[in-house]
Amino acid sequence: MTVFDRILPIASEVLREHRAIVSQLEWLVINRDLNARVRIILPESVEPDVERRKQCEAIYEVLAARIAPHAYPVQTGILYEATRDEACAGGTSYPLDDFDKVWLVDRLATEGNWANIAPETDGAPRIVFFSIKGGVGRSTALAACAWKLAQLGKRVLVLDLDLESPGLSSSLLPTDRQPMYGITDWLVEDLVDNGEPILDGMIATSELARDGQIYVVPAHGSDAGEYIAKLGRVWMPKVGDDGTREPWSARSHRLLRTLEARIKPDIVLIDSRAGIDEVASSCVTDLGANLILLFALDGSQTWSGYRILFNHWQRARVAEDIRERLQMVAALVPELDPSAYLKDLRERAYDLFLEKLYDELASPDAEGWSFDLANELAPHQPWAVRWHRGFAALHTLHGRLEQIDDDEIRHVFGDLIGRILRYLGWGDGYPKVIDGGAF
Ligand SMILES: Nc1ncnc2c1ncn2[C@@H]1O[C@H](COP(=O)(O)OP(=O)(O)OP(=O)(O)O)[C@@H](O)[C@H]1O
Ligand SMILES: [Mg+2]
């Protein structure tokens, strides 16, 4: 009896045992289908070549016997395609370690795959607020950042993509300013080409901004309507008349570009869903984010969750595409001995980055960036948000933000906001917090 996690190690062993044959193939794809059964896909040229075909069938037979019940009878266990791209189409694929020509393609019941890393946008910077665990103060920190950036005169676009647990907009908007529609409405209307007419009705401005402007695009409108019926449809791909299929993550990226073209923001802040979730995967990997904030509490649940994610990126060989955009954030740093807490968190983050995403301890580059434990610019170096009783168990964050002053924001969120500002090249933000060693 073999379980799913043994499929790849066994497949690697079997292919290694038959390396002489495998190395003569143009390519070989291991296809793990929706039911977690494996076929191999080979170039079409193999099929008429009786000797080679028999050799490949023999390999599949050995593999199938060892991974049963995750396999098919040999008659149906081998498929042929013209090209490797065609063999991998519609799934998540990556090369298998130790082989030049062997790829894995995974067919998942969900669209989110975490391993397709969209290139960074070169327009207004996009910052994603993500965490493995929920309830760590992500949305509150995002609202505080929006507040500060707007005080500095910036046009801030805020997107609530935490569709299954929406709430950010209520922290930035009082009830009477909530717009009529939200992202969920657009994703449903877009399926019937009706997105454009509701666009203006899904953008609200917050009166919390002083010199700049905060544009809020909520998950749903002032009246959520039949939210659950709509939510169940947002994940739909849009199929064009010509049969082309636009996955929902590409649709949400299109929405983001449309909103950017309309609002012309200086910066976009995106509230992602927490956890290893489909919407979260889209926020983190599909939206072309420049900076992905990974909120973390120093606890085993946090680290085992990030380990799963980093492991996936390592396996899919995309570590290099994403690691420099990542940034740990120490969430809810306790009042008692914050420095010791941050030191532990930094070390644990470093160990994980080193094991999964860093490949060498390079000397600092021109900007002073390196994978060193102490390097101030490295992604494992946590930016901090303090726990503060004034933000715990708030009835409405909006009410709190209405009365807040710069000193309070500085005290709780100053380190995070200051570092975001420095990252953006928009000044030092709160230099006292950073340079004065407040933590
Ligand atoms: N800096 C802080 N200090 C103390 N409490 C905080 C702080 N920030 C947020 N909180 C409180 O923690 C709770 C969770 O905050 P928030 O909703 O911002 O977290 P979240 O990570 O966005 O959660 P979710 O995963 O549910 O979206 C709220 O009750 C909030 O008032
Ligand atoms: Mg939230």
Residue runs with pLDDT of under 50 for 5 or more positions: none
> In the CATH classification, which architecture of the largest domain applies?
3-Layer(aba) Sandwich
Can you tell me the number of structural domains? Answer: 2
The DSSP helix count reads 17
CATH class of the largest domain: Alpha Beta
Number of strands: 15
The set of bound ligands, ions and cofactors reads: adenosine-5'-triphosphate, magnesium ion
Can you tell me about this structure?
With 439 residues, this protein is of the alpha/beta class. The chain has 2 domains: 4-106, no CATH class; 126-435, Rossmann fold, CATH 3.40.50. Helix content is 39%, strand content 16%. The chain is built from 17 helices and 15 strands. An 8-stranded mixed beta sheet has the order 8-9-7-12-6-13-14-15, sandwiched between helices. The protein has a 5-stranded mixed beta sheet with strand order 3-2-1-5-4. A two-stranded antiparallel sheet has the order 10-11. Helix 6 packs across helix 16, helix 8 crosses helix 9 and helix 12 (300-315) runs parallel beside helix 14 (338-356). The longest helix is centred in the C-terminal third of the chain and has 19 residues, at 338-356. The chain is globular and about 80 Å long. 41% of the residues are buried. The site of magnesium ion has 6 residues, from helix 6.
